[in-house]
Design goal:
This protein has 183 residues and is mostly helical. Helix content is 70%, strand content 0%. The chain folds into two domains: 1-30, no CATH class; 32-175, Orthogonal Bundle (Tetracycline Repressor, domain 2). It starts with a helix and ends in an 8-residue tail after the last helix. Residues 11-30 bind DNA.
Length: 183
């Protein structure tokens, strides 16, 4: 239901019926509807993270991993608008998650710092900046559909790389590399 419509107002009874489980069974797994929806979002982000891992496995440059992951995440506003609508409202709660896209972004930032590709700073702070920038871009894509979302993502990916210490010319080139096909 969340993936189809983004509607979080459905009753627990409707959710239980849709899942073909008894009403009481719901409470064997979740304390509230909010907990169910949070679990659904976390599961979806983990699934995307696994897809990203598979599709980006051949990329060794941490800067390209961060830029590509950023751009592909931004594209989810078109490919999975219902999920991204939920993240518009609750995304800050997922920036420092221990799974999904956040865990992978933190890993890539840490590798970039350890390799000298990125300027050493607190990786958690860098993740905050990266996640906040991404959530801002998602908001932009919904609020201003006239803006070219892919071009905005490329420009922001370049800015993120520069923020991480990648030289401007290099950041410009890396942010514009072709995206892998994750289909």
């Amino acid at each position: 239901m969340l993936a189809e419509t983004g509607d979080t107002s459905a009753s627990i009874q409707v959710i239980a019926e849709r899942a073909d489980v008894g009403f009481g069974s719901f409470y064997n797994h979740f304390d509230s509807k909010t907990e169910l929806f949070e679990a659904a979002v976390q599961d979806a982000l983990e699934e995307f993270g696994q897809t990203f891992d598979e599709g980006l496995a051949g990329i060794d440059d941490p800067a390209e991993l961060v830029a590509t992951g950023f751009r592909l995440s931004a594209r989810m506003a078109e490919s999975h608008p219902e999920l991204m609508q939920v993240l518009r409202r609750r995304g800050l709660a997922h920036i420092h998650s221990h799974n999904g896209l956040a865990r992978r972004a933190l890993r890539d930032v840490e590798v970039g710092m350890a390799s000298g590709r990125f300027t050493p700073v607190d990786p958690t702070v860098a993740l905050s900046a990266l996640g906040g920038t991404l959530l801002s871009l998602v908001e932009l894509r919904f609020a201003r559909p006239d803006v070219d979302g892919d071009e905005a993502a490329v420009n922001l990916a370049e800015m993120v790389l520069r923020m991480l210490g990648v030289p401007p010319d290099d950041a410009h080139e890396v942010a514009r590399r072709p995206l892998p096909d994750l289909a």
